[in-house]
Design goal:
The complex is a heterodimer of chains A (337) and B (165). Chain A contains 13 helices and 13 strands. With 337 residues, chain A is an alpha/beta fold. Chain A has two domains: 171 residues, NAD(P)-binding Rossmann-like Domain (Rossmann fold, 3-Layer(aba) Sandwich); 154 residues, Dihydrodipicolinate Reductase, domain 2. In chain A, the strands form two sheets. In chain A, strands 4-3-2-1-5-6-7 form a seven-stranded mixed β-sheet, sandwiched between helices. Chain B has four helices and eight strands; from the N terminus they run βαββαββαββαβ. Chain B is elongated. Chain B is 31% helix and 38% strand. Chain B has 165 residues and is α+β, with helices and mostly antiparallel strands. In chain B, a hairpin with a 7-residue loop joins β6 and β7. Classes of the chains: A alpha/beta (337), B alpha+beta (165). At the A-B interface, α12, β10 and β11 of A face β5, β7 and β8 of B.
């Protein structure tokens, strides 16, 4: 299978490392031979229809800060030209998320689909802005569209619901979907430290971003709730439909009071038909959503199975590669490979 | 606490009054009375279901003893205290927490049964935890939606239980 990687940041590099590491496993177990024929980032592109040497690509891009440094690579904006012009089966859209416009991911995905290429993405932006449009465009163009990595990182939220629980009606989805805020709340709970102190520490550790607004104000969680509402509940929801409260005002005293009553405070996203919500909630100790650290957890409320919960790592290049690679194998199987 | 009893009364005038009088005299607040004429016993007595509120256990015992002394047969006794109980946290300035509690207590079948306050540092917000006890789940969600409105108006951050929906 010929792949194009659009975006070569943490996720693009993480996926490349996994493709190297798993090459013989993929061939042996799945009859899948992935070949990265192009990699693009915001500074340039590297193309080789016989397949890029990923070890070399990682080395030169690591040093120069762009894939353009690869032998024969070019500097400049090439994303659309590569997406449309290079012969390939699957486009990986892994550029940074913009939840307001969805760009540049949105255009990348649309052009790839119109060019007859299957799309796998981790990018929440296009899914939040234009889920229905992309979903029907994929069908019209006769291509596969997968986005497991956009919600839950390594936790197979979308796949579990769409495949294994396909016989159920999903009544409600509740989840801890943001590792950064869960880390902050966990540290506040264990040490009684104030929000600002723990946030600074999380930024130093790289758990929180320099601008943590999207995380701590609950907007990242709201984006994921929007995606789940659209993809699993069949809704046509926008980000503005989600009622959002963040964790900025959660004080150590509140966490202590909760603890005395056997409860933890967690930032929870809730999706049910007619009501989308994100906010801090009281969760009993020992509840499936009472997970610590940077973990993510999701509970489905279902008509047949009643309740199913899953937990796992919601971020990290290697962990997220699990979902990105799973999507590729899934497309490979769907196409009869 | 809210108490539900079923008592059996003879089908002659004046019986109901005989049963109700000691309840209200001893501080019980009667909320509903239901005659179950269709369930008349073989001895011709009529079951009457009664729901009343009473301050504490001791008062309830006094009421029950008085009823027994007057020959009223109580066949079922159930406390409905804590039928539904939910915890909520409020974060913000708590200068008028009393008002919040009064507004909740004013709802029928809703009572703030526990309150803990933790004051923040100088110039910082405080946290309050309240346990809200209600007769049933429906009243619990009514209490929560009222609390949501109060919190929005007072600009408090409300953290409800995940199970409270």
């Amino acid at each position: 299978m010929r792949l194009v990687l659009v975006g070569f940041g943490n996720l693009g590099r993480g996926l490349s490392r996994v493709l190297i590491q798993k090459a013989s496993f993929l061939r042996r177990s799945h009859g899948l031979i992935p070949r990265v024929v192009a990699a693009v980032d915001e500074f340039g592109a590297a193309v080789d229809e016989k397949g890029l040497n990923l070890t070399r690509l990682l080395r030169v891009a690591g040093k120069a800060g762009t894939v353009a440094a690869y032998r024969g690579g070019k500097r400049g904006k090439f994303a659309l030209r590569v997406i449309e012009g290079v012969e390939a089966d699957v486009v990986y859209e892994l550029t940074p998320t913009n939840i307001k416009t969805g760009e540049p991911g949105l255009t990348h995905i649309k052009r790839a689909m119109r060019a007859g290429k299957h799309v796998i993405t981790s990018n929440k932006g296009p899914l939040v802005v234009a889920f229905r449009e992309l979903d029907s465009l994929a069908r019209r163009c006769g291509v596969e569209f997968r986005y497991s990595a956009s919600v839950g990182g390594a936790v197979p939220v979308v796949g579990l619901a769409k495949e294994l629980l396909a016989g159920n009606e999903i009544r409600e989805i509740r989840g801890v979907l943001n590792g950064t805020t869960n880390y902050i709340l966990t540290r506040m709970s264990r040490e009684g430290a104030p929000f600002e102190v723990v946030l600074r520490e999380a930024q130093e550790l790289g758990v929180a971003e320099k601008d943590p607004t999207l995380d701590i104000e609950g907007i990242d969680t709201a984006s994921k709730i929007t995606i789940l509402a659209n993809s699993l509940l069949g809704m046509n929801a926008r980000l503005k439909d989600v009622k959002v409260a963040g964790i900025k005002r959660v004080r150590p005293e509140a966490i202590r009071l909760a603890k005395e009553a056997g409860q933890m405070i967690k930032l929870i996203g809730i999706a049910k038909r007619g009501s989308l919500e994100v906010g801090p909630k009281l969760v009993p100790l020992g509840h499936p959503l009472a997970v610590g650290g940077t973990l993510n957890a999701v509970t489905f409320e279902l008509d047949l199975a009643r309740e199913i919960s899953i937990t796992g790592f919601g971020a990290g290049p290697k962990e997220t590669s699990s979902s990105l690679l799973g999507d590729l194998i899934d497309i490979h199987r769907t196409l009869g490979g | 606490m809210l108490v539900k009893i079923v008592m059996e009364l003879e089908d002659v005038p004046g019986q109901l009054l005989k049963a109700l009088e000691p309840i209200s005299r001893l501080g019980g607040n009667i909320q509903s009375i239901m005659h179950q004429r269709e369930r008349k016993t073989p001895l011709g007595r009529i079951p009457v279901m009664l729901v009343f509120e009473v301050g504490d256990r001791a008062r309830l015992n006094r009421i029950l003893a008085t009823l027994r002394a007057r020959g009223v047969r109580v066949t079922q006794l159930g406390e409905r205290e804590g039928a539904a109980r939910t915890t909520a946290l409020l974060i913000g300035p708590h200068t008028d927490i009393r008002d919040t509690i009064d507004r909740l207590d004013a709802l029928r079948g809703v009572r703030v049964s526990d309150l803990s306050l933790a004051m923040g540092g100088l110039g910082q917000e405080s946290a309050a935890r309240m346990t809200i006890t209600t007769d049933d789940e429906k009243r619990a969600s009514l209490a929560i939606s009222n609390l949501q409105r109060i919190a929005a108006r007072k600009k408090l951050l409300l953290i409800t239980s995940l199970e409270a929906g």
